[in-house]
Amino acid sequence: MWHFKLNINFYFILLVASMGCSAKNHTTINAKGFVISHSANNESVELSTLAISILKKHTNDHSIIQKYSDEKYRDYKRIHFEVNPDLTHDYCITKTSNTLSIIIKSKHSAIWIIHQLTEDLSKFDSRINADELLPSTVNFKKSNCNTFDFNYRDPHYSTNQIEGNSLIFGNNNVDIDWGLWGHNLSKIIPHNADSSIYAMVNGKRNKNQFSFSSSKLIEIFDEYVRNNFGDGSSHGYHFMIMPQDNQLVCTCDDCKKLGNTEKNATPAVSFFIKEMANRFPHHKFFTSAYHTTQEPPKEFLGKNTGVFLSSINLKKGVNLNKNQPETTRFLENLKKWKDLTENIYLWDYSSNFDDYLTPIPVLYSLQEQLKFYNKHGINGIFLNASGYDYSPFDDLKTFVAGELMKNINSNIDTLIEVYLKKQYPKSHSLLADYYISLERDFAALKKPYNMYGGINEILKTYLNPDDFIVFYDKLASKLKQTDFDEIERKKLDKLYTALSFTRLQIAYNHPFKKYGCVAKKKDGISLKPEISHFLVELKNHFHYDNLSKYKEASGNLNDYIHFWEEIIQQKTYQNLLLLEKPIYVLVGNINGVKYLNNGLPAYENDYHHGWHISYTNTKFKCHTEGFNGKKIIELRFLNNNRHGFYPPSQINFTDGEEKIRTISIGNYDTNINSLIVRVELDFTEHTSIEIEFIRRPYSKSMVGCDEIRILNEL
Question: Which CATH number applies to 583-711?
Answer without folding.
Answer: 2.60.120.1190
